[in-house]
Amino acid sequence: MDKDNDLIKIIVIGNTLVGKTSFIHRYVNNGFRPDYKSTIGVDFAIKQVQTSTNKTVKVQLWDIAGQERFTYLTRAYYKDAAGCVLMFDLGSVASFESVRKWKADLDAKVRTQSGTLLPCILVANKSDKSPASVKDNDIQLMCEELLFVGWTKTSVKEGHMIKESMSYLLDIILGIS
Ligand code: GDP
Ligand code: MG
User: What is the pTM of this model?
Assistant: First the structure.
């Protein structure tokens, strides 16, 4: 994190179609476009937010548009990241199983400035769809085993738990919680 201008880089990773681009769009513009086109390469969006201690920071959310098939990313993408959102689709067991690979790649390639694991939340998206194919208990176990800072269900479609999950992560990054 670049403390001088308070720009906080957060990367959003996970399998294709789980809702990453929609999540970024929802958080930054508060919109949901079912026809949102995936772009090729790396994309990012910036949002100015108030932290829970009323500090203003700029959050830069990085999308991995179109590179999900590799399940690993270049170091350049991870460079200077302060936190991570790792997303899967509650309706896709395959996307949940990939969480392990994404987290291993993340932990192998990036650390915080003090050498600890990058704070990463596990986001179980599409909670509006039922029935879910992935059980809460399995998510909890994965969260503990792989040392995520927490997990939550979201529905980007319904705008459920988007801001909340981001402020939870931001507070950890900024050392507030
Ligand atoms: P990405 O490949 O991870 O960037 O996924 P996208 O953001 O492109 O979304 C993939 C598809 O899932 C799109 O058709 C979205 O409209 C849909 N989608 C994203 N979030 C949700 C959600 O919370 N609920 C439902 N039902 N669909 C969603
Ligand atoms: Mg996308």
Answer: 0.92
